[in-house]
């Protein structure tokens, strides 16, 4: 498994954020991704910067912990 670029942590919940490089039409794009499960379906979130990915991951944690979880489950994945 790849080493996480950053670990978003809040309320004893952690989400690993991974760096990912994709190519399209000869250009290479760098992005950051994390995954979680919502109502039994895998959700993958991708952001252009590490800071944006961390903000999005923390929002998922806040949603889960704020009583609006509605089936959120964290999974380790890429």
Provide structural commentary.
This protein is of the alpha+beta class and 78 residues long. Helices cover 21% and strands 50% of the residues. It is built from 1 helix and 5 strands, in the order E-E-E-E-H-E. Strands 1, 2, 3, 4 and 5 form a 5-stranded antiparallel sheet that branches. A hairpin with a 2-residue loop joins strand 2 and strand 3 (27-38). The protein is elongated, with a radius of gyration of 13 Å. The chain starts with 5 loop residues before the first strand and ends with a strand.
What's the N-to-C terminus distance?
9 Å
Oligomer category: single chain
H/E series, N to C?
EEEEHE
Q: What's the overall average pLDDT, rounded?
A: 81
Strand runs, count: 5
Given as residue ranges, the uncertain stretches (5+ residues, pLDDT < 50) are none
How does the major sheet shape up? 5 strands, antiparallel
- The helix count comes to 1
* Molecular shape: elongated
Radius of gyration: 13 Å
Keywords:
78 residues; 5-stranded antiparallel beta sheet; single chain; elongated; alpha+beta
Offer a quick outline of the entry.
Helices cover 21% and strands 50% of the residues. It has 78 residues and is an alpha+beta fold.
Task: List strands and helices in order, with pairings.
Layout: E1 6-10, E2 13-24, E3 27-38, E4 41-47, H1 50-65, E5 72-74
Antiparallel strand pairs: 1-2, 2-3, 3-4, 3-5
